[in-house]
Amino acid sequence: MNIIKTLSQNKVAMVGFFVLAVLCLIAAFGPLLYDGSPWKMVQRPFLPPFENSNYLLGTDTLGRDVLAGLIYGTRISLLVGLVSTLIALLIGIPLGAYAGYFGGWVDELLMRFTEIFQTVPSFALAIVIVAIFEPSVYSITSAIAIVSWPPVARLVRGEFMALRNQEYVLAAKLNGQSHSNIILREILPNSLSPIIVLASLMVATAILLESSLSFLGLGDPEIMSWGYMIGAAKTVVRQAWWLSFIPGLAIALTVLSLNLLGEGLNEALNPKMSGKREN
Questions:
Q1: Is 0.85 surpassed by the pTM of this model?
Q2: What is the pLDDT of residues 215-232, one digit of tens each?
Q3: Residues paired with residue 65 on neighbouring β-strands, in sequence order
Q4: Measured at the alpha carbon of residue 272, what is the angle toward residues 166 and 183, in degrees to the nearest 5?
Q5: pLDDT tens, 25-59?
Q6: Would you give the DSSP letter of residue 153?
Q7: Are 151 and 137 in contact (CB under 8 A)?
Q8: Which residues of the chain carry a pLDDT beneath 70?
């Protein structure tokens, strides 16, 4: 409750939360309330925004409704960001936990394995993975998850190394609790704060990665996303600026909101940060 109260007092974080809440509502109910297909040609191409009341944001190069594409793209972009982050957490947390808790050769082995994925730039590795398995929403989500888990593993490892010698952990060992019990019930709950903050920032990074891949033509050609909309309009930026500007603005607002919420969570979950802010 104290965390919620602290977060609610942070006006900047609440702005980010409000924008994300609106985007989630659009993703959940937008396609149901707005009866328009993002693929259907409904008007002449390059119809400017606000010129036709039926198509407020105009049409694209093929005469498709830009607003419909934006609404459907919200669902895909958020879904890719959330699912890829969840997969990355499911990979990174166990590896980091075991490395930090056991140390020794287990730590060495798991960290060398982690470094293999960090030797190649994340974006380049994501491009290779998507190109190998053919562009689809599944390959894009998997590629983003694969390049995103190493920072999670390193963060969790550091937290576990700092907490494994605490008194409550040593007491649990003396009581004969298993290693799994100690990891899941004693150490992990006390290391969740930085993980939650990192996860909120990872969603923003995942959305940017998906948009970048789609811009390069590696997006799923059968699914509308913000990145796909920008990529489809890159050759007509001078002729129809709104086709790139509108989805680009949606991406910028989403990423900014996630960053603001992440900073707010960091202050709410970190007493030292909260103290500095109050002073």
A1: yes
A2: 888 888 888 889 889 888
A3: 59
A4: 30
A5: 999 898 888 877 888 888 899 999 998 888 899 99
A6: H
A7: no
A8: 1-3, 270-279
Name 56's bridge partners.
Answer: none
Looking at residue 34, the DSSP 8-state letter turns out to be: S
How far is it between the farthest Cα atoms of the chain?
Answer: 75
Which pair of structure tokens corresponds to residue 211? 């948009």
Q: How far is CA 267 from CA 22, 154, 157, 195, in A?
A: 23, 21, 22, 13
Enter the DSSP assignment of 119. Answer: S
| Total Cβ atoms within 10 A of residue 36 | 16
Angle between helices 11-33 and 242-269 (to 10 degrees): 130
**3-state secondary structure at position 64:** strand
**pLDDT score for 10:** 84
The pair of structure tokens assigned to 182 is 């100690």
Distance CA 47, CA 58 (A): 5
Calpha distance 20→39 (Å, rounded): 26
Structure tokens at 77: 């972009």
What are 41's strand-pairing partners?
64
Question: Distances in Å between the alpha carbon of 77 and those of 15, 52, 183, 223?
Answer: 20, 27, 33, 10
Q: Which 8-state DSSP code applies to residue 166?
A: S
Tokens of 231: 């990529």
Q: What is the pLDDT of residue 279?
A: 44
